[in-house]
Every structure is written in structure tokens, then in C-alpha cells.
Design goal:
Helix 2 crosses helix 3. The radius of gyration is 15 Å and the shape is elongated. It has a two-stranded antiparallel ribbon with strand order 1-2. Helix content is 68%, strand content 5%.
Length: 123
């Protein structure tokens, strides 16, 4: 990924992307904290780092929105996560476990393996 974002920061981008798909308004830090099971202080620190790197912008009362740069990365991660989760579910893994393991795999799975998983889902 671009600028060597940590797995944790990539998860923030992906969660914000998912929330933006639900609403065009800014994403509230408390929602991010709930989704990632972290403190609001951790969200503040992460979003400040992402904002200073140009991946998101803070808006009204601390809400955040992805920039085009952040959205580009988040969309790729979101699509990759969905493919991995579908693949794991097809193997018989429960949905929640598939999502948890999928998040861990997104950052470490080689692109060539991901493409094979994605192709297998088209069959």
C-alpha cells in the first residue's frame, strides 16, 4: 500500500469508507471507535495522522471524510476484504470469523494469491 500505511491505519480507512457508503455525511469518531473496538483517543490520534498524510479531512465537530487519495486505498481494501470474506465463507467459515480473519489477511496476502481467490469466486 501507498506510503507504507500500517495495517491498523488501513483498517481505519476501510471502516471510514464503509461508513461513507451508508451516508454522505462525515463519519463520527465514536462510530469508528465502536467498529474497531478502540478508544476515542486512539481514533483521534489515528485520524490526525491520516489527515496530516492527506488520506482524510476532518470536518464539522471532529467528523471525518476520506480524501480522493484515502478513498482510492480504502476502496481497494474494501473490495479485497469482501472477496476474502466470501472465499472463507464458501469454505465453511462463519461470517464473523471470516471478517476477523479477512481483516488480518488483507494487509499480508500477496496480490497474486488475492487475484486467484477473486477469480475463484467468479466461477
Amino acid at each position: 500500500m501507498e506510503n507504507k500505511l500500517s495495517e491498523s491505519l488501513i483498517n481505519y480507512l476501510e471502516i471510514i469508507y464503509e461508513e461513507e457508503l451508508k451516508s454522505s455525511l462525515g463519519v463520527q469518531p465514536n462510530i469508528i471507535a465502536q467498529r474497531l473496538k478502540v478508544t476515542k483517543a486512539a481514533v483521534t490520534k489515528a485520524t490526525e495522522k491520516l489527515a496530516s498524510s492527506g488520506y482524510l479531512k476532518k470536518i464539522y465537530y471532529g467528523d471525518v471524510n476520506l480524501t480522493d487519495k484515502g478513498k482510492e486505498i480504502a476502496k481497494k481494501v474494501y473490495e479485497k476484504l469482501n472477496s476474502i470474506c466470501k472465499y472463507l465463507i464458501n469454505l465453511g467459515v462463519e461470517k464473523l470469523d471470516a471478517e476477523i480473519q479477512g481483516r488480518k489477511l488483507v494487509g499480508v496476502l500477496k496480490d497474486e494469491i488475492y487475484l486467484k481467490i477473486k477469480d475463484s469466486l467468479k466461477v
